[in-house]
């Protein structure tokens, strides 16, 4: 389990309405690792795995996923604990 996935799992213990930012950047771009190597590849794969877990938690009704635009191709990805 990677650090972001661990943070999301721990986040589920918080009360309804609690929020956490699980990524800042452009998730659609940042999670792709095919052309990367070494440490950058591992980080991108971990981010992709975490994004998948976040989507599964959202589909299960445990969290709500939102994003806030910070600039060009830069977003804040937010998970909010469901009530």
Please sum up the structure shown.
The chain is α+β, with helices and mostly antiparallel strands and 83 residues long. It is built from 3 helices and 3 strands. The chain has one domain.
What does this structure look like?
By secondary structure, the protein is an alpha+beta fold. The protein has one domain. 42% of the residues lie in helices and 29% in strands. The chain contains 3 helices and 3 strands. It has helices at residues 3-11, 27-30, 38-59; strands at 19-25, 63-71, 74-81. It has a 3-stranded antiparallel beta sheet with strand order 1-3-2. It is globular and about 40 Å long. The model has no long low-confidence stretch (mean pLDDT 90).
How would you write the strand order of the largest sheet?
Answer: 1-3-2
Class from secondary-structure proportions: alpha+beta
Number of domains: 1
Q: What share of the residues does DSSP label as strand, in percent?
A: 25-35%
Shape: globular
Which range best describes the helical content: under 10%, 10-25%, 25-40%, 40-55%, 55-70% or over 70%? 40-55%
Work out the radius of gyration: 13 Å
How confident is the prediction overall: mean pLDDT? 90
Count all strands and give the number: 3
Q: Major sheet, described briefly?
A: 3 strands, antiparallel
Instruction: Give the H and E element order.
Output: HEHHEE
> Low-confidence runs (pLDDT<50, min 5 residues)?
none
For the record, give the distance between the C-alpha atoms at the N and C termini, rounded to a whole number: 26 Å
Determine the oligomeric state from the structure. single chain
Q: Helix count, per DSSP?
A: 3
């Amino acid at each position: 389990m990677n650090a972001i996935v661990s943070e999301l799992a721990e986040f589920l213990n918080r009360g309804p309405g609690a929020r956490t930012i699980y990524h800042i950047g452009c998730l659609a771009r940042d999670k792709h690792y095919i052309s990367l190597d070494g440490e950058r590849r591992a980080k991108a794969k971990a981010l992709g795995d975490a994004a998948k877990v976040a989507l599964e938690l959202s589909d299960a009704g445990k969290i709500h996923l939102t994003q806030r635009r910070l600039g060009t191709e830069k977003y804040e990805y937010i998970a909010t604990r469901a009530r």
